[in-house]
Amino acid sequence: MTILEMLDPRHTPPLHPLLVNFTAALIPTSVISDWLGKFTKKDSFRSTAFWTLTLATAITPVTAYMGWRWMNALQETQTNAMVFHRIMGFSLAGILLPMLYWRFRTFRGGRPTSILYLLIMTVVILAVAMQGHIGATMTFGNGSTAP
């Protein structure tokens, strides 16, 4: 088996379910750290917020791409939920770049984040939670414990 064959999602375990956990943890960690930094005025929280958002911005497009590859490898019929999940995943990956740029400018300037930034990122957390719920429902069903 060649290296390319080993990287083919039909021959490897799907990486998407693993990578989603990074996005699901890093974005809320960033936003919570920024809220804490806003009210405690501690630079350590602001620094944590910037670096965790940087990591989330790097990993989330990879997560979306690996989900797309996994979906294609499964060769299943596209459901409305899957189409919405895919569009939302790539949209979330896309919004992180301008948000990181905004966050970088305040971090570099040594300024606290604005309330507007924090509110937008709080909405992003809600979108990530909804995205995770949709993905989990497609993977595990409606919550029943029966296999």
Quick take:
The protein has helices spanning 3-7, 16-40, 43-74, 80-109, 115-140. It has one domain (12-137).
Topology:
Layout: H1 3-7, H2 16-40, H3 43-74, H4 80-109, H5 115-140
Helix pairs in contact: 2-3, 2-5, 3-4, 4-5
Total number of domains: 1
User: How far is it from the N-terminal to the C-terminal residue, by CA?
Assistant: 33 Å
Derived from helix and strand composition plus strand pairing, the structural class reads mainly alpha
Which spans have pLDDT < 50 for at least 5 consecutive residues? none
Q: What string gives the helices and strands in order?
A: HHHHH
Please state the oligomeric state of the protein chains shown: single chain
Helical proportion, percent range = over 70%
Largest sheet: none
Number of helices in the DSSP assignment: 5
Average pLDDT works out at 87
Provide the β-strand percentage band. under 5%
* Number of DSSP-assigned strands: 0
The shape, in one word, is elongated
